[in-house]
Each structure stands twice: as C-alpha cells, then as structure tokens.
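Batch manifest, entry 17 of 40.
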Amino acid sequence: RITSIMSSSDFNNLNQENNLYFSALNWDTQGVKIEGLNKSGDRLENFPINIQTEPGFERIMVLNGLAMLNKNGEPRIGIIIGQYNDTSSGRNLLLYLDIYSIDGNLIKRTNIFGDTSKGVLLQMSLMAVGDLNQDNNSEIVVSYGIIDYESFIEDRYNISSYNSFVKVIDSDGDIISSPISIQGYTPRHIALGDFGRGNLDIVATFSDTWPTTYDGQKVIGFDYLGNNLFDINLNDSNDLIQGLTIGDVDGDSESEIIINQRPRWWDGNPSGIMIYNHNGILENEIEIPTFGRADDLQSNYPLLVDLDNDGDLEIVQQATLISSGAS
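Output type: structure tokens
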C-alpha cells in the first residue's frame, strides 16, 4: 500500500528535479519504506530507505506524506510515523518525526508524542514546510491533536479531553518552538503565508468538539515563536471548515486567508468561501448555493489561478453535491 507521494519539485531545485519520492506501508508486515525513482521509473541509488521502527508496537501509521527539506543546500526527507497498540482504553501511541539524508542515513528521530502510559486517540497530524526564521533552511510545522480516551468516555463534554499542539522542528530534527496548544479543538489544516512581516507566518484551522460545538470552528494566525496575529471563531457554528489556502486574491499585493465551508447539518444551506486579511478580519464572503442538501468541499481546497491572464488570481472551487436523497 502506497501511503504518500511527493515529487522532487518540493526540493526547490536542489539538483533533485525529475525525481519522485514516496512512502509505502506494507500492511501485512507493518514495514515502511521511502522509495525514490527517476523520471524513467528506475530506482535511485541508496533507495529504498527501510525505516527501522520502534519495538513493542503491533501497528504503524504513516502520516502526512513526505516533507522535502533543505539544509544548507543539501536535500533531506522528513516523515512522520505513528506506532500503537490497541487497548480497551484507546491506543498507547508513539508519534515521531524521522529526517533522512538523500543517501538514506537517519539524521535524527524526534519524539513528537510519547506518553504511552494512557490510551489516546490521534486526531489528525499535519505538516507544512518553509523557511520560518530566515536562516535559508527548511523548518517543519507539525500540528496534531490528542484525545484522552478514558476522559472522553467518562465525559465527552470535558474540554480538557481534547488537546491540540503545534511544534516547529528544524531540518536537523531539533524542536525549536512549541508556539501554541489549545483545548477543546482538533487540527484541521495548516498553511504558511507571507503577510509582509519579514518571516513566513503560520495559519491553522481547528474543528470543534462536543464541548465547543456551538462556539464556531477556529482559525489562528501566529509566527513560529507563538506570537499571535489573530485568534477567531467562525460566526456561524453551522459552518464547517473544509479547506485553507493563502494568496493575494484582491490584487492589493498582500496575502489573504481563504477558507471554504459547508453546512454542518446538510440542511440545504449554502456552502461558501470566506476571505480574511492577515489580522483575521473578514473581508469578503462568497455563497455557493446548493441544488441538494449540501455541497461538500471536503479535501477540495480553494485553488488560486489566473484563468484569464489579467494578472489577478481567481478562486476555483470543486464541490461534491450531496443530493436531497442522500443520507
């Protein structure tokens, strides 16, 4: 089973163009490898990279695909691995990031979550890559959510049962910051954007949970040190965030934050697109009327492209119609 594919275009022309890298999980043996192929389909030298997992776990997850990194002009590959055992009280989870050199050597294994003393549920693990501190090297932003299983079973409205975290890790595998942690929400999307402040900033969206259902889903902007740009909840708790994109859609030479949403209850209300500035202020809202119960935008991020070659970006949105008879 192939779990992720990433082309070498993400290596930013570090002499790796026209190569393809992907991870693969063998579900039967629970073995994981990273493959590298050239444009002719031939395996690259030093590949596959067979990942040596930790002992004592029955199951493995490969999360998010591959992170293509730059360290002083040297290409590196990052991959997030989860290992766990199923128990009557959730999973005793180990979550870590491996960084490999292009010749297959493990540079560092970084523990992201490793409290195996209690059962948990992993709610999403996300990655974004960019130069966040202007050192000309890549940093990895990792966002993940943990539900305390026993606490959740005892009282699903206990807000402390739901914890989400963001960590920033450099291309050597060292955690350089843990900019935010919040309760009551689970990660949904993460993206990096240039808002004219000198460094790339981070925007993350979060889904609500049982105790926060009617508070509205959340969007947070911050830098890699944890300084907040904004922290907002959507005005309507019926709006579920489906995608996140950052770009200049109004031609003012400043990036905007574009999210799409669908109605929570598939109740015939319109889906839509919301455009926020870098201070979290809603600048525009576009309704997408439905011909059924809803237009589901799940995994269909807003696409920004100049369709008519006028120098301005248009928003292209794919949707899946949930018909009136669907359940």
